[in-house]
Amino acid sequence: MLKAELKQNSLKIGHEISRFLNGYGLILASNSPRRAEILNLAGVLFKVTSPRYSEERSDLEKPEVLVQRNSMKKAESISNEIQTGIILGADTIVVWEQEIFGKPKDEKEAIAMLKKLSGKWHQVYTGVALLNKKNSKRISGFEVTEVKFNELTEKEIKEYIATGDSLDKAGAYGIQESASGRLVEKIEGNFDNVMGLPLQKVLELLEEIL
Q1: I need a labelling partner for 209 at 20 to 30 A (CA). Which of 56, 129, 178, 203 fits?
Q2: Rounded CA gap, 85 and 132, in Å?
Q3: Do 150 and 192 meet the contact criterion of CB atoms below 8 Å apart?
Q4: Distance CA 205, CA 208 (A)
Q5: pLDDT 10s digits, 163-181
Q6: 4-13, 44-53, 130-139: least confidently modelled range
Q7: DSSP class per residue in 80-92
Q8: CATH code, residues 3-209
């Protein structure tokens, strides 16, 4: 999806999110520039506060449970610093044949992840959590998107790793960078979910928490 298309779709949902917020401040508990980019493209006003929580990963836990727990922990980790508003936490993982990929710890692990994903389908899960400081309500949900990779040569994988786009992303790739267009063959589901923040899910949860 081109950035212009993503912005057009995001603005529609972003308008509804802003309408529901109606004076509530939105605080994003995330260090992810991609999540901030999605909210900016959607025209949603927000502030960023770094979470005081590091994601946990376990292949023994269901992906949808894991991402919802991590997203809520991120939101809760800054709750004492925030006096009013809605805190938004999110967590994204890649799942390939029941193996969970978070952010690679180094280039070697990034290469190993991309080799496993090459030519295969995998799932991208994002958990979303909202915490309302006014009434102490909290809620979480998740979105899953199916992604198919092209067949990649070792040279193509190493060239992509060399761009520096891998180490801060779950599964060692970013769907939105121009270089990653060589990686992905097709997507079934929400593009913004693969980027790290499914706006439609945020809207659905807002409707329940306000």
Answers
A1: 56
A2: 6
A3: no
A4: 5
A5: 888 888 999 998 876 456 6
A6: 4-13
A7: GG--SSEEEEEEE
A8: 3.90.950.10
